[in-house]
Amino acid sequence: MSSPILHNRTRHSPSIPVKLRREKRWLEVPLYHLLKQSDLAREGLENSGSYRFADHIYRNQPSGKGLIGTTLDRALMTLPAVRSFRNRYLAARDELVDFLVHRPVSTEPIHILSAPCGLPRELAEAARIANEQSSGCLDRVSFHGVDLDKKVLRDAVEFASDNGLPRFFAHHGDALDLKSYSVNADFITCTGLAEFLDDAHLGKLYGVFHQVLKPGGRLFTSGMRRLPLSDYLLELAELHTHYRGPSDLEQLARQAGFTSIRVGKDNLKIQSLLLAQR
């Protein structure tokens, strides 16, 4: 029996230079080695867009091997696709801040969930900003991260501790498996997974989220449209991406049972952003 495909596991690419030579893409071999001087590109090429690749963009702090690597890293981070990639993190953070600050007063416990969580930077930053805006708004709030990689979860717990995220609980499991969720959530963030799922699996994921959310709970998620340069770099890193616009996300969310939906694009009109309420 073949092993199941786990779409939300970080993929480790085989030798890309060997593949390029086999396909006689000779000019791309030196380009590959140049790109690896950038920390962002190296993480993307070696680990197929891992959680550290995403967090590098979210932190927005260029780094690399020496001056050349750092300069290249800075140049890559100015690309529209990369800046738009960061926009989805900012949008998730800001929607969560709005929820935490303006939610109705309740004595019930509040559960905030990120799936798959990677390093839960949007949770930590949202909690910090919300607490600055409304002292006490984090009372009875707990934060949760679901991820398939146990090492990611260990790093997530350490990140939460280092960044002052209170009451963070890590849960090992597949984001597409309902059994991975031990709490009913009031707010779910999910960014970066839709691009690696076909419509059937993304619809299943939205259906799982719909079941996990409490009545009135919110889901924030995203997709992206195709850009030639970013698509080339993703192909070079052996990342096979599914591109979607706002209407595509909305259709899948409605099929999953969501009825109150707001969709739009980031200011660069690359990221599709969806906020749905159960």
How do the strands and helices of this protein lay out in sequence?
Elements lengths: L15 H7 L5 H8 L3 H9 L3 H9 L6 H12 L2 H23 L7 E5 L6 H13 L7 E7 L2 H13 L5 E5 L12 E6 L8 H14 E12 L3 H9 L9 H10 L4 E6 L5 E7 L1
Parallel strand pairs: 1-2, 1-4, 2-3, 4-5
Antiparallel strand pairs: 5-7, 6-7
Could you please describe the fold and organization of this structure?
The protein is an alpha/beta fold and 278 residues long. The protein folds into two domains: 16-78, no CATH class; 81-277, Rossmann fold. Helix content is 46%, strand content 17%. It has eleven helices and seven strands. The protein has helices at residues 16-22, 28-35, 39-47, 51-59, 66-77, 80-102, 121-133, 150-162, 199-212, 228-236, 246-255, and strands at residues 110-114, 141-147, 168-172, 185-190, 213-224, 260-265, 271-277. Helix 3 (39-47) packs antiparallel against helix 4 (51-59). The longest helix has 23 residues, at 80-102. The radius of gyration is 19 Å and the shape is globular.
